[in-house]
Amino acid sequence: MAVRLPRPHRDDVRIALGGLLGGLLLYAVGLGVRPADEPIVLWPDSRVLLLPLVVMAGCELLRRTMPRTALLIGTVAVAADLFTRGSLATVLMFTDLIYAAVLYGRAVGARRILWLTGLITVAGTVVPVAVWRVPEALLIGVGVGLVALTPAATGWIVRNHRDTAAAERLRAEQTALLAEIDRAQAVTAERARMARELHDMVANHLSAIAIHSTAALSLDDPRTSKDALAVIRENSVEGLAEMRRLIGILRDDSGDKEPAAAPTLDGLEALTEGARTNGLDVTLDATHEARLPAPVELAAYRIVQESLTNALKHASPGRVTVTVAQLDGSLTVRVTSPYGDRDGPRAPGSGAGLVGMEERVALLDGTFEAGPENSGRTKAWTVRATLPINQRTQRDHRDLRDQPGQSTQSSHGGSE
Which CATH superfamily does the domain covering 259-411 fall into? Predict the structure, then answer.
């Protein structure tokens, strides 16, 4: 089976043709490296030097595709050229083969060639001086160094620069890929955050509107309908205000305006009062420090808000209890509502509220539980969240709020 040689690179073809034509030109003008009467010249006929020249030009065709093979054959050719009058083109092409073998060959082979040419250069310097003991013998070592070590060292330097450039290019591509991944994750996280904000701010008002509008349509009582319409109007106005506030935050990218204050635990009383207006029997028990990290206060507020919304939509008649307590470096939020069959109108749910609460707690490395549990003779739905209070974050937040000129609103400013 015939072995097909790889197709030579076009630059290698140009190098081979240039070396062959240069050698033929030197042969035509009768220029050789050594005179014909030197003892080392075994074949004084000038035509004999054409054979190593042609072989060396053929090796140049393989300098990039088969650098090791080309160097081995080229070494034999240059050795044969030593016993002829010699051609400068043959020697120059041999130095190029050494350079190409180091540059394009495998790293292990390139390292060996560099060491071998270094040893040959040292030997070519020390041995002639030791044998002949004349200063002119050093010229032999210089010649060997120029023919062998110099191209090998040059190839090694170029190879290192090439590998470094490839590594830097790969590192830049990886950095760009990581930046794109970070950007995509940031966009996803921001979309999830805005989804939680939209759900928590608007769902409460829309749920109350849905329930009271259903009651107004189903009960033929003018007084009841009037009260329901009043609640519907109140929740519509509040929901519209919340939407305008959120849209303002999204549209204002100048950074000149003071960000709107985010909800805090101080607003729990007003939140539960609004739930009572919508028809829930709510009790609130909140004990905590006056100043907590803004992310913790916002998460606790939203969890209570969403839990009251769910109680309004799904809970059975009965009392809803909200407990917020700070203990052992964490803030615990617990909302309990009656669980069971409900006779009155019910607003539809999507389950996004529980997901949003769980995401908020997870962002603060807390724990979250939600589900039915038996409490004596009654069955209750309990939402329980534990939010760790990072001491360093709490200290930094307290220092910021205690600075002169800093108001409570600005310390809680911005969105989650």
Answer: Histidine kinase-like ATPase, C-terminal domain (3.30.565.10)
pLDDT score, position 93: 96
In which residue ranges of the chain is pLDDT below 70?
1-3, 200-204, 212, 215, 218-219, 224, 248-262, 341-351, 375-377, 391-416
State whether residue 219 is helix, strand or coil.
coil
Specify the DSSP element, H or E, that contains 303.
helix 294-314
- The residue behind tokens 């690179």 is 9
Distance CA 29, CA 243 (A): 94
Cα–Cα distance list, 81 to 97, 145, 161 (Å) = 15, 18, 34
For the chain, what are the domain ranges?
A: 10-174, 259-411
What is the Cα–Cα distance from 198 to 185, expressed in whole angstroms? 20
Residue from 272, 265, 384 nearest 332 by CA: 384
First-residue to last-residue Cα distance in the chain: 73
pTM for this one? 0.54
pLDDT at 164: 95
